[in-house]
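Data availability excerpt. The first of two example chains:
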Amino acid sequence: MWLVILVPLLPLVAAIIVLVGKPDTLYQRARLGVLPFATAFVGAVITLVWVASDGAVALRLYDPSSIANVAVPLGFYIDRLSAVMMVLIACVGTIIYRYSINYMYQDAGYRRFLALTAFTTAVLLCMVSSANLVMLFVCWQFLSYLLPLLAHNLNHAATGKGAFRTFTFLRVGDVAFLGGIVLAHSLYGTIS
């Protein structure tokens, strides 16, 4: 079931489609970017059906015993709850992306917004399918940097202040998150 890795990677393909190319073809490329989003949604539904019938899927991206310096295994663990969340995130991400194509077409930050939407969707999909708390924390870090960028309109100063407050507030959450990881490791001896 290695194809489940494609679900969080497909929104990244949409971001690349939007970012790479001539400015005069941006609208066509943005419309083409819906296909990876829709495919990610279909893949999430297939993953949900797979997990509901055969049980959880655990994928390890590498073996930590083979690499001496890195002791944290990176990978995906997808059970029923994370599969349902993947379906929900992929569906909402597809709807937001598709709606934004026509709604924000004349906006100066059109390309940036669509790319950030795709990156945020990919990070959220990785976040809900993380194999352990450290990978979840890394995804949280990416998300906490993407959200203020997504909320900030470059032409409006008030959104910049709001994005900075959001960024600062999320840093407070980092301290609590790290404390929770340390507490879980000290009490249970695992970060999974």
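And the second chain:
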Amino acid sequence: MAEIIDLSMEIWAGMPIYKGLPEVKMTMHNTHEQWDNDTESNEITPSVYKLELGEHTGTHVDALNHMAKEHKDISIDAMPLSQFYTQGICLDLSHKGLKELISASDIQEACKKDNLEIKKNDTVLLYTDHYRKTYGTPNWGNGPGITAKAARWLGEQGIAAFAVETMSPGVPKVSNKEVHRICGELGFTHYENMINMHLLIGKGRFRFIALPLKIRGGTGSPVRAVAVFED
């Protein structure tokens, strides 16, 4: 039987979100007692929740139209599903600290350390252990991130995407905006707010699956990201 490792955050009301994005709200829309016309029950059991959230909530993927205006026609529903169903590797960059930059040479050295190769159409997961160290603390928004040169180098390898544990792929106000632009320019994307990457270290290649919602014109989508290790 295949081993499936869940790489996705829970979505819950009031969860931490990137500054300026919509807050997550979750309210009970219907109950079973309402549906059953049960006016005597002392229990309230939800049958439908109403969710209010942005596309870039929790573990999510960015569409190319999020990267820059010139990619306005490449929304999440227009991107090929093959971009979200790939081979994957996870690289150990857990030595990187708060707001520390990850260079192309850092990525290359991590590949050599674990004898891994970045192949065309891969999804490359960058493990920094930032989630376990800081989620729910004031430093959650101060994670490490890749440089613009690292983003360009990854794109030149022909990858489908890369993935990070942090709320942004680059360091905000340092490299983040340029990283987004390079993704758009070279036609690859990234995932943010991943978890459980530590469970992938040292285990080699895996099947990576993270299908987005089919949001018409969407600039991104929450995903249920998983790593699958076949027998």
